[in-house]
Amino acid sequence: MAPLSEIRATKMAAAALSRGPGYEPQPLGTRFGTNDVRGYYLDLRAKTTSSSAAAPEQLVPAGLAQLALGWWERSLGGEEEALEAFDNACRLLLDQAVSQDDALLWPYDMAVAKYQLRPPWFSAMAQGQIASVFVRAASRDEKAADTALQALRPLLDRAEPCVVNLKAGPVLEEAPTTPPSYVLNGWIYALWGVRDVAVGLDSREASALFDDSLEALLATLDEYDTSWWSRYSLWANGRDLAKPFYHRIHVAQLEVLHALTGVAEFATVAARWRNYDTRTATARAVLAKGREVLTR
User: Fold this and answer.
1) pLDDT digits (tens, 9 = 90+) for 87-121
2) Residue 127 class from Cβ within 10 Å (0-12 exposed, 13-18 middle, 19+ buried)?
3) Could you give the angle at which helices 80-96 and 124-137 cross, rounded to 10 degrees?
4) Which residue pairs, CB below 8 angstroms and at least 24 apart, start in 37-43?
């Protein structure tokens, strides 16, 4: 067995370079609807062929939700066995849920040194993506609609730690940090869960939250722009740059938001950030993330 220091170095290098399980390609979805709920907004089929798909019960909540959405995408392509795998992922999600009042919560049982998080903690991103899973499951299972609403309840209540209320509107927090971190990709993933409940389940409460959080996102979006790259979050006074993997997800997410809302600014920023993605800028971002990991 390799020395512990060597294993840690390998993991840090993989993290900086966005390689390995968890970094599967997530291109723009091709089957999502702008007026209904069909395919997911990013194509997560690569999750289903990752080594981590062999042990779905070991995935973190958002990871399991993304696996389910990958299987859903494959089922829309006509693969019957994919629908069985989707149903299995839904069962695993239900098994891992914790009931609290009228909500279902999915706890993270891992510490995150970067954000000084200690378990258990809860994520708006996970709650939103799990809601997205069960809105889609509701087309075949009546009980799934209730599960989707229960998953989204912590967001609909607009209460910390899943929601931080700014003057501009509510931010959906992937990582419940102090001070708030405002992780961009997690905010948008959570926002899509809100949109799915609003459209798929005709929820006025979710529709109002979507509109308000979208307004907050538009008011905050410039803060994620360094003039040469995008920020992953607003943690550490803006020093938290996105890895190339997440920078490209940001671009795709903004393109989806433009398709869903027609707001021109999303397309403008997406195009600008896509143009940032040069070989020189990518190398600069990787070096910056590597220094950050080594410092921690």
Assistant:
1) 999 999 999 999 999 999 999 999 999 999 999 99
2) buried
3) 130
4) 37/135, 37/136, 37/196, 37/199, 37/200, 38/76, 39/72, 39/73, 39/76, 40/69, 40/72, 40/73, 40/132, 40/192, 41/192, 41/253, 41/256, 41/260, 42/249, 42/252, 42/253, 42/256, 43/73
Q: How far is CA 121 from CA 22, 90, 160, 283, in A?
A: 20, 21, 11, 33
Q: Tell me the pTM.
A: 0.94
Q: Which of 153, 212, 213, 164 is nearest to 188 (CA)?
A: 213
Please say whether the beta carbons of 61 and 106 come within 8 A.
yes
Q: What is the mean pLDDT of the chain?
A: 93
Q: Over the stretch 136-150, which tens digit does the pLDDT of each residue have? A: 999 999 899 999 999
Q: Which phi and psi angles does 108 have, rounded to 5°?
A: -95, 125
Residue 164: strand pairing partners: 171
Rounded CA-CA distance 137/168 in Å is 33
Residue with tokens 């940001």: 250
Q: Are 171 and 179 in contact (CB under 8 A)?
A: no
Cα 64 from Cα 79, distance rounded (Å): 19
How big is the CA angle at 138 (ends 216 and 255), to the nearest 5 degrees? 35
- Calculate ∠ Cα 206-161-23, nearest 5°: 85
Which residue, 278, 260, 257, 279, is CA-closest to 268? Answer: 257
Q: If you search the block for the tokens 């410039």, which residue do you land on?
A: 222
